[in-house]
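Our collaborator T.R. sent over the components below with a one-line note: 'Predict the complex.' Nothing else. No constraints on interfaces, no templates requested, no preferences about which chain binds where. So this is a plain run: every listed entity goes in together, and whatever single assembly comes back becomes the starting point for the next discussion.
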Amino acid sequence: MVLKDVIEEKGKTAFMLGNEAIARGAIEADAKVVAFYPGAPTSEVLDTLSDALDNFDYQMEIATNEKVALEICAGAAFAGIRSLTAMKSVGTNVASDTLFVLGYTGVKGGMVVVMADDPQAHSSQSEEDGRFFAPNTYIPMLEPSTPQEALEMVKNAFEISERHRVPVIVRTVTRVNHQSGIVQTGEIKRKAFQKVKWKELSEKYITLGEVARQKKLKMLERTMKIAEEFETSEFNFNERARSDTGIITSSVSYLYVQEALNMLNAQNRVNILKLGTTYPLPKNKIEEFIGDLKKLVVIEELSPYLEKEILSIAKEVNPSLQVYGKISGDFSEACEYNPNIVAKGIATALRMKVPEYESIIKEAKELKTLIPDRFPTFCAGCPHRATFVALNQALRILKAKGQEHYLANDIGCYSMWVFPPISQADSSLCMGASVGVANGLSHVIEERIIAVVGDSTFFHASIPAIINAVHNGNKFTLIILDNSVTAMTGQQYNPSTEFIAGGKQGKKISIEGICKAIGADFVEVIDSYDVKNNVEIFRKALEFNGLSIVVSRRECALYGDRIKRRRGEKIVPVYVDKEKCKRPYVCLRTFYCPAYEIDEDRQPRISAELCDGCSVCSKLCPIQSIKPVEVKK
Amino acid sequence: MSLNIFICGVGGQGLVLLTSVIGYACVKNHIKVITGEMYGLSQRSGAVSVHLRIGEDAYSPLIPFGQADILLALEAIEPLRYIEYLKKDGVVLMNTRIMHPPVETSKIVDNKAAKYITLEEIVSQLKKWTPNIAAVDALKLAKEAGNVRTENTVFLGCLSALVSFLPTEESIKEAISEAVPKKTVEQNLKAFYLGKESAFNSLCTLVPCRK
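Returned assembly:
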């Protein structure tokens, strides 16, 4: 990222990632409070605003979870101050308790919630369709297709929010967040930040019982008004053609439609209605569009959210309309779309020759039989790998005594443990769920239960389940992998780091301090790299008659490397002494480090370019044949 | 007309930075550009890919199957993984460097008869798709430039030789200087030139290049 494009006062033509454009939109809209919990594909909104923080006067927090982030923004908006948060839709699940009541209470200052879905589950546990949050919470929703539109919609959402005194969702998908393109930025005209007097605002944000019933009616009224306004929104537009066929689409699918029509050479053969305001829907506009069509193709990823609404409108205004979508079986609810899938659907409706792509895929597949999979794995130097090596050795000792185990994995870099060649975990659900599930399993299975969470996941969603375990006397082992940062999303700071947003000094929270304060009887802190000693500590923890907690601590290798480079420290790789190596393969069989390969003599070889110099493998080698390379002075 | 480049490689090789530099250079030359980037997890060593589209009639952030003009692979195994995106007469511009994933190594440790995939095997498979293959030892050139992490810029140098690659050399050099860490600007510019030079013996025998 070139930060200067994000912070430059004058508007200009720039090359921006969708997430950078969202951040720029927040700055141009003069947002004063921003708060986030990182989550792909939205993390770069946080990163960009953190990098830009020195240049502006907004308050920024990297919050402990999405619910707290949303509430930080709500607090600001209650006092009339503009605020923005961004989260992946599975994060919205965590925040949703608050989101639902914000629909009732409303806000005073503009409040924008960027919510990203991840069709194809590229970096998520599910293909959630977060759009349903909007009708469920009566919170209006906009959907951009491009970085440019994302910037415009974020700015506009603040205005809608203030006009109707309700938060506004800007819903994206991975292919919008991680799409780069040409963006024309606007001017930055920010007012100096000033605290306000709460008493002078005379606002109340309460909803309960009778108050809630009254607010519900007002919420319905508000939604009608917004729907009316959206009928003329510039974010919904028609591209007319002399044809009895139409397409209704939104989000990134609009770009696939354009591409597909270009592929089919059918640009002027269909009418297009592109929807940018997808809750509440502009029903009159849809009525007018479909009124005299014979055929309609609805192109949207995931659930038939638009399609169902459109079908119910069509029933009234054009009952004979033939609708091609998911319900008709022309498109799938599974996985993300692409230009080829969309071209096929449009060609079917237009009775054109359906462009074939399955044969290309099939032919390509035949060429790929040779190539190995490249699953995401622990980086060279990753402390998690060392922790799991020690844990596995302890588990072998236990197994020799006839004790089996259940491993509950969780969300973070340590999730990689479920992929080959390691493939180890009995469950892996969502943030913090491993600890909750361990509580339940402790009542019903005979094996020793191990739950694993990272530092960020510990703070995010694990603490209530740990308290539950201590309070109820549930017996399992909890391993907290503390690598100092939220590594998987790009090494953002969290309460285990001494820094906060913008790299400013913060207060580091002690994980073991919390565990001890809760009343856990077995809390041990280990250095992840110290495999030999850690085996014995894990053995004790696994045999402990109660909840045992092991905090395995060592900073993320990528984060550590950044610090080392900044300090001018050298990373000294290790190598295999071919004379000494007797090929016991302890390094290769237990460690699975990406810096390792096997050479022509079937001896391990370490790539100096990839090795991080953690030296854990050299400590594991029974014949001490792995040594640091000599560094020229 | 648009130029579609599908870029692939391994996490940590600097695909995203390479994409940004090309994007900044396009903006400087008022050329339309759109990308779709896939790097959900921040780990090193996983497969990473970018759809890069330069020119007026590129609408979608994803290149349709069989429409990429160039398949640029910063690692040698990866072009096969995404071959369906390449045109049948398209160009594979690839690194000779193979980074064997732990999955492959573990199979070889367990089975004495198993062997690593070789560059020859990969190229012979690729040739079933297209005759136009240019392989560059980018790691060697990056080392020559003084920084092993400039393989990405070596390939940018290769691309810059192409007639179909619109951003000017001036704008690319400016973009490199703005985007890479200050300390590595010289090394990156050197890597750029080494890459460009190398193109004249390989890539330019397959596609029209600037003099």
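Summary for T.R.: The mean pLDDT of chain B is 95.
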